[in-house]
Amino acid sequence: MRTQIGIVGAGPAGLVLAHLLHLQGIESIVVESRSRKYIEERVRAGLLEQGTVDLLIATGVGERLKRECLTHHGIELRFNRRGHRIDFNDLTGGKTVTIYAQQEVIKDLVGARLEAGLPIIFEAEDVSVHDFDSGKNPSIRFRAAGQSEEIHCDYIAGCDGFHGICRPSIPAGVLTEFDREYPFGWLGILAQAPPSSDELVYTYSERGFALLTMRTRQISRLYLQVPFDEDINAWPDERIWNELRMRTAADGNWKLNEGNIFQKNIASMRSYVVEPMQYGKMFLAGDAAHIVPPTGAKGLNLAVADVRIMSKAFAEFYAIGKTQLLESYSATCLRRVWKAQRFSWWMTSMLHRFDTDNVFDQRRQIAELDYVTSSRAAMTTLAENYVGLPWD
């Protein structure tokens, strides 16, 4: 097989890139190790920045998003049993964030690609990448339906996530890794319960962090801070609801809506960046290059920002033969990546209880939350980062 861009991974990064390239007349083949059913049902976060929503709509894959999404004009920070609203509309000139689950974005992108008759190879086995660091054209090798296959291409886009094969295929000593693991995780549940608030509620309490969000108007997505090595079996449903009630308690008429929990899991918290995000004729995007803790809701949005830059670079190369944007891809992406890392770390450190904290640290956190929710300048900083910094 022969194509211009070989894409490894059919997550948000790989599928958005393939879609953007198609719109510019650039050929690509997407190779994915999982089944279509798996990637379309895998539950992931679903908070989209303004720029991500605008891009999906402008490129023709946002019709269902517009019909089914939940648009949020702010968030609430809750501490000392009181809620404080951060008004995105007022602080950012009308920008918002959108609740639309990642698996729904995946469904829309897969559907659009298959409807256009463009190739996605699902359930590829033994995927490997070759010759991206030589004078030859690179290739992607794999097995599909029991047959050995090889895709020859001009460039490879490594969009296969943190545990994929692309980044580890780069020779030792080329990449520098920046890593921070947090001493806690998030216990997340999906529950058949209407959201308790119209907007997300981030809660700081003496018992630890809690987050109230939603997937639809009937399904709540709720999170609790727990130790990083916690056993999910130690959390029966009633314990989860009891802890959520205590951590989100507020004065007034506040009531936590409860219902049947139909999914629960514990996710670790990590910050990770690799530099550079390119080597030879292979370019990394999304989780293959960086991980953010979910507190700032930046993971999917950073992936989309990466491939928007990558698609522009490929378009310039195929249109006029220039490689300037390709050569600066990593540096351009990393400016935004590190700003997103800073914001995600800040939100995480402000709202979570750390094992090493003492009374001083706890008072400092309360003071910071008080400042953030009483200073227009501080609220604007939070709002600008949350709805999404400029693309470039």
Reported by name, the CATH topology of the largest domain is FAD/NAD(P)-binding domain
Number of domains: 2
Low-confidence stretches: none
Q: Report the total helices.
A: 12
Shape, per Cα inertia axes: globular
Instruction: Please tell me how large the radius of gyration is.
Output: 22 Å
What can you tell me about this protein's structure?
This protein is of the alpha+beta class and 392 residues long. It folds into 2 domains: 227 residues, 3-Layer(bba) Sandwich (FAD/NAD(P)-binding domain), CATH 3.50.50.60; 121 residues, 2-Layer Sandwich (D-Amino Acid Oxidase, Chain A, domain 2), CATH 3.30.9. It is built from 12 helices and 20 strands. A hairpin with a 5-residue loop joins strand 15 and strand 16. Helix 8 packs antiparallel against helix 10. It is globular and about 65 Å long. The protein starts with a strand and ends in a 5-residue tail after the last helix. The mean pLDDT is 96.
In short:
The chain is built from 12 helices and 20 strands.
Looking at this protein, list some descriptive labels.
392 residues, alpha+beta, D-Amino Acid Oxidase, Chain A, domain 2, 8-stranded mixed sheet, 6-stranded mixed sheet, 35% helix, 28% strand
Task: Set out the fold topology.
Layout: E1 5-8, H1 12-23, E2 28-31, H2 36-41, E3 47-48, H3 50-58, H4 63-68, E4 70-72, E5 74-79, E6 82-87, H5 88-92, E7 97-99, H6 102-115, E8 120-121, E9 125-130, E10 139-144, E11 147-152, E12 155-158, E13 176-192, E14 201-203, E15 210-214, E16 220-227, H7 237-247, E17 260-275, E18 278-279, E19 282-284, E20 290-291, H8 299-320, H9 324-327, H10 329-351, H11 359-372, H12 376-387
Parallel strand pairs: 1-2, 1-12, 2-8, 5-14, 12-19
Antiparallel strand pairs: 3-7, 4-7, 5-6, 9-10, 10-11, 13-16, 13-17, 14-15, 15-16, 17-20, 18-19
